[in-house]
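Final report, Chapter 2: Outcomes

The project's central promise was a pipeline that accepts a single protein chain and returns its three-dimensional structure in a standardized token representation, suitable for archiving and comparison. That pipeline is now operational. To close this chapter, we reproduce one record exactly as it appears in the project archive, with the input sequence first and the structure output second.
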Amino acid sequence: MKKLSLISLGVLASLQMANAQTISSKKWADLFSYNNVTAMKEDNGKIVAAAENGIFYYTISSGEITKLSKANGLHEVKISAFDYNPQNKIALIGYQNGSLDVITPDGVTYVVDIPIATGYNGSKKINHISITGDLAVISVGYGVSIFDLKKKEFKDSAFFLTGGIYEASNEATIFGNKVYSVTNTGLKSHEMNTTFPVFSTWNTEMAGSFRHIDSEGVLSFSSATTAYLYSGGVSSPLSQTFGNVRDVVVNSNNIVVTDVNRVYTFNTNGNFTNTVSFGEECNTATTVGGSVYGGTVLSGIKNESSNSFKPDGPYFNYAYKMSLYGDNQILVSTGGREGRFNTGINNPKNPGFYYFNGMEWIYPSYFIGSTTWFNILDVVSDPASPDDVFFTNYVTSPERGIYKMKYNASSKDFTFTKNYNLGTTDSFTRRPVGLTFDDSNNLFATIAFSGEGSAQGPFTAIGAYDRATDDFLIKNTTSSFGAAQKPLFYEGLLWIPIPRVNSFIAYDAKKTVNTSDDTAYILNQSNGFATNSGGTISVALDKSGDAWIGGDMGLRILSDAVSAVKTPATATVEPIIIEQNGLGEELFRDSQILQIEVDAGDHKWVSVDGGGVYYLSADGQQTVKHFTKENSPLPTNSITDIKVDKKTGKVYFASYDGIVTYQGDVADVGSGFGNVLVYPNPVVYSNFKGKVTIKGLAEVTNIRIADAAGNVVHSAVARGGYYEWDLNNQRGTRVASGVYFVLMTNEDGSDKATAKIAVVN
């Protein structure tokens, strides 16, 4: 039985990852996929494996699995190269953006200053890393560099430049006192001496196009179809012919060659010893104690019995929109989007959707190996029958439409029920986008390009699901907008952003699926949207009933939205004006607002395309937090969806590079107090120099903080369920060491709470 632990990797047991990493904390966790294992290293009966967004460590004897990612130690995602030295316990991770993480028993060091050849403007991706002792040879698109693991600095680099053209080192290894590199033109070598950086002094040991190389006692390399043993300056082909070599690994006892669907082992003399099939594609393989382990594309690490070992996570990292419901259950769609437009692009992985049942991630077998073109923009569970799941397939092909599937808890799988083609056989029309349920559990869908090609033009349409007939009733809106976003239900209306036209729709379905009496209220540029905006993208309704509408050129607020939108001739949307350097400035002006979410305390989470995520005060006047890829575990600065579990305060961030979560401070905010918690407490200045957080407060809380003598040193009104104190007194200077009493009452004085804070300066 495998056990999962979130502590630091066992192979790096003495590391305290969180302490060595400034951008992660215990508040963050990853929901990354660890299926696609690209590199592995054995350490005394244990395997360290690299996946796309993190590394994990599998102890064969106990089944224990630990993981390390940007949420608890690493600095990046999109791992492209990895190696580990079991002797000195040092690992080196290379990323697609050209940066490195050096993992030692003392912590994680981020390296961004990799040498770049003059005039080179190609990919900075780290192609391969090979560690020998305290040195690593790093292969990049313009040659190789030697990295000193102890000093954490680069030594010599050789830029493979011939006739003004750079040649990539596909992989390289240190063997003896030489570096051997495989390129598309040959196996090249050079001693590590003073002429190493001069490419004209490198030798071509064998001409040809070669992909992989490794060494430990012996050296082996490969082309796409042939693997070689290199000895005494002579390259001898191994006895097998391969279809498509994925990797060559050399350890003390074996040469392991990974083909597309089989793994071949040879002894160090080059004699064939065994072949193993894992029943699926492998990227790499190694041997441990006489057994072969495969690093698969879709199942993590597999042993010869085809048992899979990996941290739990979604099938792929690609994520677009999320639905939270029930007891910690999550549905994740994976649809495509470019700019502000939903697209019918074909993701080659054809990912479908993912489901977390509260205990583990489940991937529907329906999508595995399917030739149907899926571009799922939204997936929801039916509140009236939670095992029924609906999803939208936004493609320009006959497969487009709304699909219904049923979940079987015993088999942990979904079965196909029906595809609703929305009343047309034209593959370009009636493409479904988003789904939502009203408070009577009626299902509604937004539909793009209804009637395209007809005299009426491309309409935005609404689809209402009629349970009696098991079909969707379609009604076009009165304006030819064409596109639409996911609808939000609030106070009897469907709130629908329109991404291709500078407009917004509030749709009144009259709480029925009968579309004949429905009304569409339309706001456009004349109502106050930015004049340079090409459309609206996101919307959220807050506790005050105000609609926060995000466009591709900023943010607008529609106050008292339900009432205002029903008189569109007079309705006005307003920007938020904040003071910057004494001047008023529009918040998020000219920024594309991908998603807006309101938490239990009425604070706003706002995703800005390319700008990360902002956590704003209820009125938007203050930025409480600003998370970016650079200062937090966010995998990218373009977060496609945000969801808040209002019971727990946990915030989910989805992106095309994976999902991460942040444990927020606001949960279950009401008129009275919850479980009031103060942290950190005690506050020791030498260990912590930030603000003290007080959570579990009422929606409006009057706070007085007094010293042991009863003198009030600080007072405030907290809104939204939590408060941060900077430890300053009324004069703006830091309070003295001592115990301070926090006295709190709610807005009408009907509830009260107290707490203590110990301060050590």
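Archive annotation: Residues 271 and 429 are 61 Å apart (CA to CA).
This record, like all others produced under the grant, will remain available to the consortium after the project formally closes.
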